[in-house]
Write a structure and sequence with these properties.
about 375 residues, single chain, 11 helices, binds zinc ion, alpha/beta, 6-stranded parallel β-sheet, about 25% helix
Length: about 375
């Protein structure tokens, strides 16, 4: 999840006193203060709302960025978490698509205007008014910020809740709610599939899921990694080929071979190397978040009509489609399951890239 335009409705917060319910959570009131147990309020159920008991919540790099205020708009207190898998415990009077006991999921988006051309097109991520994110976003109902999934329950309009298939391993399905849709949406948009050479740059939380999804879409998957230890792991994850990108001889063999390269790297790196691997009309699509601007040599895009593009999460309908696709192909993330009390230690390890490949919190530990 990445920063977006904040919803204007923040300025028109409903001043009426709304009933709330105390909920246990894990968060922090200030920068550099470790996350700890706290109480938050969830809104009373509105007619279209679903209340779920949270079973598992993934830890995404954006959670780390936000508690460290690295995007510059963190509202404290903060409760992170936006890869939420739960079970419905209550429904509002007008809820149609969920019943009590259903498995449910919430990802990055929990509200949008619902009437702009993008919302009407199921592309809520591009909403003209900006979306409400599941945490650290102005809360239209209660004021303050929305609180995420490192908590006991979540309350959300059913339009932004997805169904999770009972056949999936629920803990390892949680990261699909952000990492899964972040890679599925561009792979689909740029038509990864049979006959296509699809490169995955970087094997981390995003990259390892991208390998599995691209493979299941029928593409020939080539992983590019700087880490010799990840070459074998890439093949275990389903890649057809894995290339050590620091080896110039190996890299030469892929010049003009790739239709699409999904770039999941969040550190500074030279994208020109990868633009040169594209076939004519090929694209390098960035889904990682390097902090510094990336330089692109003109000839690396004008030659071969190459594109350098980006993609950020996906809409709710596409998130459901991705979950159905993953259930059909039995795709989940490779995870390390932790208790919520280990969260600060997990953030330290995540910062160092020391996780294979996603931490997920067992919320029963709360
Ligand atoms: Zn995320
Ligand atoms: Zn909209």
């Amino acid at each position: 999840m990445k920063p977006g335009i904040y919803n204007d409705n923040f300025k028109k917060i409903n001043k009426n006193i709304m009933e709330t319910k105390n909920t246990k959570a894990f968060g922090t009131e200030a920068l550099n203060v470790p996350l700890h147990a706290m109480n938050i309020k969830r809104r009373a159920l509105q007619p279209h709302d679903v209340e779920m008991k949270i079973l598992f919540c993934g830890i995404c790099h954006s959670d780390l960025h936000q508690i460290k205020n690295e995007f510059g708009h963190t509202m404290f207190p903060i409760v992170p978490g936006h890869e939420i898998v739960g079970r419905v415990t209550k429904i509002g009077d007008h809820v149609k698509s969920f019943k009590v006991g259903d498995l449910s999921g919430v990802g990055c988006i929990v509200d949008s205007c619902g009437k702009c051309e993008y919302c009407e097109d199921n592309l809520e991520q591009f909403c003209d008014e900006g979306v409400t994110f599941s945490f650290n976003s102005p809360d239209k109902y209660l004021g303050g910020a929305t609180y995420g999934g490192f908590s006991e329950t979540y309350v959300c309009n059913e339009k932004y809740v997805v169904h999770i298939q009972e056949t999936l391993d629920l803990a390892s399905a949680a990261p699909l709610l952000c990492a899964g849709i972040t890679v599925y949406s561009p792979l689909k948009h740029w038509q990864a599939g049979p006959g296509k050479m699809v490169g995955i740059l970087g094997i981390g939380g995003l990259g390892h899921v991208a390998i599995k999804i691209a493979k299941a879409m029928g593409a020939h998957v080539v992983v590019f990694t700087t880490s010799p230890s990840k070459v074998e792991d890439a093949k275990r994850l389903g890649a057809d080929e894995a290339v050590l990108s620091t080896d110039a001889e190996q890299m030469k063999q892929y010049v003009r071979k790739m239709h699409l390269i999904l770039d999941t790297v969040s550190a500074k790196h030279d994208v020109n190397t990868y633009l040169n691997l594209l076939k004519p009309d090929g694209s390098v699509v960035l889904v990682g978040l390097p902090p510094e601007p990336l330089e692109i040599g003109a000839f690396n895009v004008v030659s071969g009509r190459h594109s350098f593009s980006g993609s950020n999460i996906g809409g709710i309908a596409e998130t459901q489609e991705m979950l159905d696709f993953c259930a059909k192909h039995n795709i989940t993330a490779d995870i390390e399951l932790i208790n919520v009390q280990q969260i600060n230690e997990a953030f330290v390890r995540l910062q160092k890239g020391d996780v294979k490949y996603r931490f997920v919190i067992d919320m029963a530990s709360l």
